[in-house]
Amino acid sequence: MLLNKGYDGDLTAAEGWKFLEEDADALLIDVRTIAEWIYVGLPDLSELGRTVVCVQWNQWPNMEVNPDFVPHLEAEGVTRDRSLLLICRSGIRSRDAAVALTSAGFGPCYNISDGFEGDLDGAKHRGTSNGWRVSGLPWVQQ
Question: Does some domain include residue 127?
């Protein structure tokens, strides 16, 4: 059921992992930048027998929206009839990508609302309160 948000809803990282465990056709799409994938790490879906699809939503250095986002996803084999879970650092870019993909006829599309690194804590640090890594979900550093 499509929400008024323009996509199918938000999931925490832990809920996203459970969704991926239960739906073998669902894809996790990491929309962060190449630098984030390399230096911060990536979700590791190897125990599910899958890999993360990595396509930048915003492009470094000016962080403009990738005008070829949909064609890049299609080149990675992403089809419009699969459940898509989108993740970024904190759930903002992935939400925007979920809205865009839903508008383009993909989905259902879900946003991992706490992202890979999670929200800022009181000291303005990420990675201490929530997110993929803090939830103890599998990840790899390249």
Answer: yes
